């Protein structure tokens, strides 16, 4: 059995999934916006950069500078894309959560009621 | 406008992210209509988050890099650490010496409001030990700025048992309210009470330290009786740990306090008390108190007041200044000298870093081209300097913790109890602070240089003349500073040594060498004894002493001089002049090594029959018969109130209490049997090869049944006076030696570095026909130029600093041109020596080899 990639942190998981979904358009600003919209988590700008740097150091993502934007004075952006180990890590992470949650009903606990 | 703030904040981020973050933030700012300030704030937040996540990691990487590179450059590391151990170590050592006196809070609760009120004569700059009790009482009652005032006076030994060789405690006399004034409570037993003074109880308190060392901290110490002569005093309490005698007269030992019975109700016109220690009322300041005391002086002495003259004056000063006034300038000078040595070490370290920076240029350039920012390069340099200074401070503190006790030798006896005996948290904190300061001061120039290294320049092997001149200027400036500081320190040492030699060779009029003081216990029954028989007993003991082998001369005196040559009693002439009076036996003058200039010594017959004769010193003769030839006063008679008329039979050479003081007027007269308690001590001058103190003791005990014989060398007399100057010689000599070594090392490093840099130039010169001596002259000349500038600046500074040092030395002109010239010569000579080796190396450059390498 191939060695299982180490589990991801919560923020790392969110950022990796965001990079996966933004495919080719993944740079810091849209990543942050997507996570806020879909997960309701407001990560600080710094956290996004730090997490991206960490993921890149782990070899899960890679980055390059895009062509300058097609506007006057447009600048290049640092765009991210998942690498194979990154994809494996997201899969392993999701699988772990799914297996653990199998057969359970996750319902919000209501105040004053016994389960 | 505030765009630069944004740019600065972005620079805190690694290069790889800077552009991306800038674009993101600018986009968002445009979308939200925010300004540059907002951008800067956003960038700063990102930077803070970034440093929080990756900072420690980066720091560890840097540290690993630094330690690795220091390990590889062992020579550089050793030289730097050694230099700094000398500089920092000296500073830390001096700190442990001066801390209690200059910086550490005094162990009193109300320190900020405590002042010393010292009687003084402003027109003569004199401070007195005693002042009018009336003034004191009025001041305590009538000066609004003063909440309460007490006093502390002299310290005297109190024996722990009746036998004469019993151990003693040095106790200081204080008023009953002193502890209240200071805000100090006893840790065991009780303090002094007003009733103790009213009922004239003999009571004493001991320090926590002597409680532990003498009584093992046992409660039985309370109630122990100590004795000062016939006075018995009971120990009633223990002072808190670290308590210091708040007296202006400092003593070599301090073991506690004893109560003086003075009450502050009333005062006769002639009553006197010790200088006051006052607690100011809240809100009152020293100038206000001074004004009010001045006004009181005017009021108490209306005649002087009306004549517009100052009345009796007191000086109000902070308690710290009052306690340590005698040592204050000395301590600050020592601190200043240590700081100079520290500065010198920093300058040296700086030039070592510069030299190493040159060797590591390509390393810098490589790191810069791989994306290390300028700030990162500078920070690495700072961190490297911090690591080295940290190691040096650590080594210094370790060395100090082994030798802290030995540091007491750096100050004279009366300050010794105030020197910390060990390294404590404050010393460590100071060491850390000193290391950080040294690291930052030393690294400024090298770090700036390192950060300016460009890849292109290095790759092109930029040794263009402009760059070289810049580099040499930096080294030259460091050298000039070193030379100037060196001149200051060596001048200080030279002046102190000259002053010491002057003192040590001053004839004090007596000799302590090979002289012993013999003390014997009293006979069993002193009360109501026959005084003539008592005198006869002393004379018999004296004769026995004289019969011992190796005794050259012996005589007895009513009180043997201990600290100087000051006698116990005195007489006041009708013209108010004061003469010191020694009551002696025949032979005493010879026993202390004084000479009879004219006439003769007292005879045994005159002693036995109590004849009123006397010996005078020339200083005393000049007081009694001003302006007359000393020889002419022989056989004259003189008298003083309450004194018999005495006939002068001889003139003894002048005697000085201390080598740095003028001769005092002294009279020697035969001992008279008196009807109150009295006591004689023997001065015994010996031939050391034949004399044995043990034999003398055995003989005295065996033949005369004398008890409690104590035989001590009389060394104390003259040596205590030399102690302070000797301490100065040791400490300033050490400073000067370290300064010279450091300055020479610094010059050597800079000259070597310069020669290494200029090898191609030397090769070219030699190829063009320059001879070896010419090359040597060139290198030495280049090295000497900044040194000469520094020496000139140092001489000017020494001339200016003279006004602070003049008071510290004895009959030495601190601006003596010869001294300054010799100092300048020594500095320049050591510079030539230090530059000689690099110059030789330069002159041995082989033009063929060097030019081929180009």
Q: What would your notes on this structure say?
A:
The complex is a heterodimer of chains A (115) and B (854). With 115 residues, chain A is mainly α. Chain A contains 4 helices and 2 strands, in the order H-H-H-E-E-H. In chain A, helix 1 (10-22) crosses helix 3 (45-58), helix 1 (10-22) crosses helix 4 (84-101) and helix 2 crosses helix 3 (45-58). Chain B is built from 27 helices and 24 strands. The longest helix of chain B is centred in the C-terminal third of the chain and has 42 residues, at 716-757. The relative contact order of chain B is 0.10. At the A-B interface, helix 3 of A face helix 2 and helix 3 of B.
Topology summary:
The complex is a heterodimer of chains A (115) and B (854).
Chain A: H1 10-22, H2 28-39, H3 45-58, E1 61-65, E2 78-82, H4 84-101
Antiparallel strand pairs in A: 1-2
Chain B: H1 3-11, H2 15-32, H3 36-72, H4 74-103, E1 114-121, E2 126-127, E3 131-132, H5 133-142, E4 146-159, E5 168-174, H6 178-182, E6 188-189, H7 194-198, E7 203-206, H8 208-215, E8 225-228, E9 231-238, E10 256-259, E11 272-273, E12 276-280, H9 286-300, H10 302-306, E13 314-318, H11 319-323, H12 325-359, H13 361-369, H14 374-403, H15 425-451, H16 455-459, H17 465-504, E14 515-519, H18 531-547, E15 551-557, E16 569-572, E17 578-584, H19 588-591, E18 596-599, H20 604-608, E19 613-616, H21 618-624, E20 637-638, E21 646-652, E22 666-670, E23 681-686, H22 693-704, E24 710-713, H23 716-757, H24 759-767, H25 772-805, H26 817-843, H27 847-853
Helix pairs in contact in B: 1-3, 2-3, 3-14, 4-12, 4-14, 4-15, 5-9, 12-15, 12-17, 12-23, 14-15, 17-23, 17-25, 17-26, 23-25, 23-26, 24-27, 25-26
> How would you sum up the major sheet of chain B?
11 strands, mixed
Structural class of chain B: alpha+beta
What is the C-alpha radius of gyration of chain A, as a whole number of Å? 17 Å
Span between termini of chain B: 49 Å
Q: Helicity level of chain A, as a percent range?
A: 40-55%
Q: Please outline the major beta sheet of chain A.
A: 2 strands, antiparallel
- Uncertain runs of chain B are 304-311
User: pLDDT below 50 for ≥5 consecutive residues: which ranges of chain A?
Assistant: none
Distance from N terminus to C terminus of chain A (CA atoms, Å) equals: 40 Å
Helix/strand order of chain A = HHHEEH
- Total number of strands of chain B: 24
Principal-axis shape of chain B equals: globular
Assembly state: heterodimer
**Annotation, overall tally of beta strands of chain A:** 2
For the largest interface, the chains and their residue counts are: A-B, 16 and 20 residues
- Secondary-structure class of chain A: mainly alpha
């Amino acid at each position: 059995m191939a060695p299982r990639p180490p589990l991801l942190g919560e923020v790392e998981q969110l950022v990796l999934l965001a990079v996966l979904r933004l495919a080719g358009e993944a740079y810091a600003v849209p990543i942050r916006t997507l996570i806020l919209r879909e997960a309701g988590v407001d990560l600080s700008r710094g956290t996004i950069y730090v997490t991206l740097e960490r993921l890149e150091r782990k070899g899960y993502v890679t980055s390059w500078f895009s062509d300058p934007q097609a506007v006057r004075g447009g600048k290049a952006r640092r765009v991210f894309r998942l690498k194979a180990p990154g994809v494996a890590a997201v899969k392993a992470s999701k699988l772990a959560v799914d297996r653990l949650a199998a057969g359970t009903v996750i319902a919000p606990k209501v105040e004053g009621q016994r389960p | 406008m505030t765009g630069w703030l944004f740019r600065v904040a972005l620079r805190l981020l690694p290069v790889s992210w800077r552009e991306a973050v800038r674009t993101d933030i600018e986009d968002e700012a445009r979308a939200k209509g925010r300004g540059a300030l907002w951008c800067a704030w956003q960038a700063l937040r990102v930077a803070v988050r970034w440093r929080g996540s990756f900072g420690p990691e980066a720091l560890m990487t840097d540290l690993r890099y630094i330690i690795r590179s220091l390990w590889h450059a062992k020579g550089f590391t050793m030289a730097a650490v050694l230099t700094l151990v000398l500089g920092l170590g000296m500073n830390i050592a001096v700190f442990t010496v001066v801390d209690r006196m200059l910086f550490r809070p005094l162990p009193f609760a109300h320190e900020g409001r405590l002042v010393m009120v010292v009687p003084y004569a402003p027109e003569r700059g004199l401070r007195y030990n005693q002042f009018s009790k009336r003034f004191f009482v009025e001041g305590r009652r009538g000066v609004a700025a003063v909440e309460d005032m007490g006093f502390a006076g002299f310290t005297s030994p109190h024996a722990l048992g009746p036998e004469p060789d019993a151990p003693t405690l040095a106790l200081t006399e204080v008023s009953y309210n002193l502890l209240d004034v200071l805000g100090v409570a006893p840790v065991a037993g009780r303090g002094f009470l007003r009733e103790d003074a009213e009922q004239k109880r003999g009571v004493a308190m001991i320090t926590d330290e002597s409680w532990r060392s003498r009584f093992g901290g046992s409660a039985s110490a309370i109630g122990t009786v100590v004795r000062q002569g016939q006075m018995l005093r009971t120990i009633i309490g223990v002072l808190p740990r670290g308590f210091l005698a708040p007296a202006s007269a400092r003593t070599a030992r301090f073991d506690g306090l004893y109560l003086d019975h003075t009450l502050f109700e009333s005062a006769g016109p002639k009553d006197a008390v010790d200088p006051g220690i006052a607690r100011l009322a809240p809100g009152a300041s020293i100038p206000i108190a001074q004004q009010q005391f001045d006004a009181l002086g005017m009021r108490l002495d209306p005649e002087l007041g009306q004549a517009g003259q100052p009345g009796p004056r007191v000086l109000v000063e902070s308690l710290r200044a009052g306690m340590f006034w005698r040592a204050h300038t000395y301590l600050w000078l020592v601190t200043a000298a240590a700081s100079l040595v520290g500065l010198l070490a920093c300058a040296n370290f700086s030039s070592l870093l510069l030299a190493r920076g040159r060797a590591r240029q390509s390393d810098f350039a490589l790191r810069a081209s791989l994306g290390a920012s300028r700030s990162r390069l500078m920070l690495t340099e700072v961190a490297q300097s911090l690591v080295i200074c940290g190691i040096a401070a650590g080594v210094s503190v370790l060395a100090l913790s082994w030798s802290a006790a030995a540091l007491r030798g750096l100050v004279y006896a009366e300050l010794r109890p105030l020197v910390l005996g060990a390294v404590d948290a404050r010393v460590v904190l100071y060491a850390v602070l000193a290391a950080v300061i040294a690291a930052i001061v030393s690294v400024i120039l090298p770090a700036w240089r390192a950060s300016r290294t460009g890849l292109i320049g290095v790759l092109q092997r930029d040794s263009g003349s402009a760059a070289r001149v810049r580099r040499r200027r930096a080294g030259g400036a460091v050298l000039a500073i070193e030379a100037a500081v060196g001149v200051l320190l060596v001048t200080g040492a030279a002046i102190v040594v000259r002053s010491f030699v002057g003192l040590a060779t001053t004839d004090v009029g007596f000799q302590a060498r090979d002289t012993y003081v013999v003390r014997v216990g009293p006979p069993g029954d002193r009360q109501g004894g026959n005084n003539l028989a008592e005198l006869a007993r002393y004379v018999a003991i004296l004769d026995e002493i004289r019969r011992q082998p190796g005794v050259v001369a012996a005589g007895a005196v009513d009180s043997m001089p201990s600290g100087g040559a000051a006698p116990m009693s005195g007489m006041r002439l009708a013209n108010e002049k004061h003469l010191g009076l020694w009551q002696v036996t025949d032979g005493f003058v010879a026993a202390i090594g004084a000479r009879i200039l004219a006439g003769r010594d007292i005879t045994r017959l005159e002693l036995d029959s109590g004849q009123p004769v006397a010996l005078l010193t020339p200083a005393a003769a000049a007081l009694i018969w001003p302006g007359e030839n000393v020889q002419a006063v022989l056989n004259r008679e003189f008298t003083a109130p309450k004194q018999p008329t005495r006939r002068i039979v001889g003139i003894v050479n002048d005697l000085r209490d201390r080598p740095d003081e003028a001769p005092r007027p002294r009279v020697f007269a035969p001992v008279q049997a008196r009807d109150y308690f009295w006591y004689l001590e023997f001065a015994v001058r010996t031939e050391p090869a034949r004399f044995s103190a043990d034999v003398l003791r055995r003989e005295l005990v065996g033949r005369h049944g004398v008890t409690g014989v104590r035989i001590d060398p009389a060394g104390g007399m003259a040596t205590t006076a030399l102690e302070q100057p000797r301490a100065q010689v040791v400490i300033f000599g050490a400073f000067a030696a370290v300064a010279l070594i450091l300055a020479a090392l610094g010059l050597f490093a800079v000259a070597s570095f310069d020669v290494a840099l200029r090898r191609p130039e030397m090769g070219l010169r030699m190829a063009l026909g320059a001879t070896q001596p010419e090359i040597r002259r060139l290198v030495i000349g280049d090295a000497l130029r900044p040194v000469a500038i520094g020496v000139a600046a140092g001489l000017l500074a020494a001339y200016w600093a003279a006004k602070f040092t003049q008071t510290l030395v004895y009959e030495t002109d601190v601006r003596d041109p010869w001294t300054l010239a010799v100092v300048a010569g020594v500095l320049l000579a050591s510079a030539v020596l230090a530059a000689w080796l690099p110059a030789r190396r330069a002159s041995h450059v082989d033009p063929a080899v060097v030019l081929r390498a180009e």
